[in-house]
Amino acid sequence: MPHATNQERLFLGIEIGGTKLQLAVGTADGAPLREVVHRRVDPARGAKGIREQIRQIAAGLLARHHVEAAGAGFGGPVDMHTGRTITSHQIAGWDDFPLQQWLSEQLSLPVLVANDCDTAALAESRWGAGRGAEVMFYTTVGSGIGGGLVVAGRLYHGHGNAAAEIGHLRPGPQATESHRTVESLASGWGLTGQARELLRRQGTEDSPLWQLCQGEPDRLDAQVVFQAARAGDALARQVLDQATRTLGWALAQVITLLAPEVVVLGGGVMEAPAEQFFAPVVEHVARYVFPPLAGSYRIEKARLGQQVVLYGALALAQQASDFSS
To answer: Would you place residue 179 in the very low, low, confident or very high pLDDT band (cuts 50, 70, 90)?
Structure first.
């Protein structure tokens, strides 16, 4: 790989997830990435193992490219004021870890760290479905549900360490238990859990859902639920109706409070056929939103795919470089 010319500004972007690790070099203008390295995460090695992977991969990338700064999107809550990770729900060893400081010391570069959903939101606002919007709300619907708010090109962090976390909204005043959230009903693992529970209580051997998992609810995943619903399974359709209605209600509250120009939906669940998830969510938003705001927003699917966090991390890196100069 050639080094950057004098006119180019190259940055290092890092995505630290619960199942995957990605590092990339690129410019912070939405252009195709110069070099990308993917690795699987070994949960048994914990955070220490991931940090060793980062050291090894980054050394090679920095040897091949002249990089100004680095940014990282972390799969868990982050203290934006200090760059410390609060925890990871998938990988042990990230509790209260000074990730920003550690990366800066290891790479000898200015570094900024953010939650991965916030990082993806920044990318979609600059180069994706939210490009040109003054106010954009982003949510990723995958194994969990995260949210990110971008105002005038900047991430909104609020006063504390968690802002725009739509997945942790309680779906109505009857949801008095802390685990009863939008995420528990509308995320990939949430709708899978609902389907397993219903199958155990109400499933019949001749139903598509029962047959697809061979009568073993623990074999279910979100993909099977969508497949069963397409085959006409009543329980699977009930689960998806609850999921899309809950997410649509939650997005309507966000729109009512914040009046964004664009709402962008990303994550693995959005890869399902539009008529099964995206379209019903849009319909439910229209049903629940504050009527004077009808027609004032648009809802789009995310456009940057599996590299969205990397693009956002490059934007963070540019900020880190500008702050340090």
So the answer is: confident
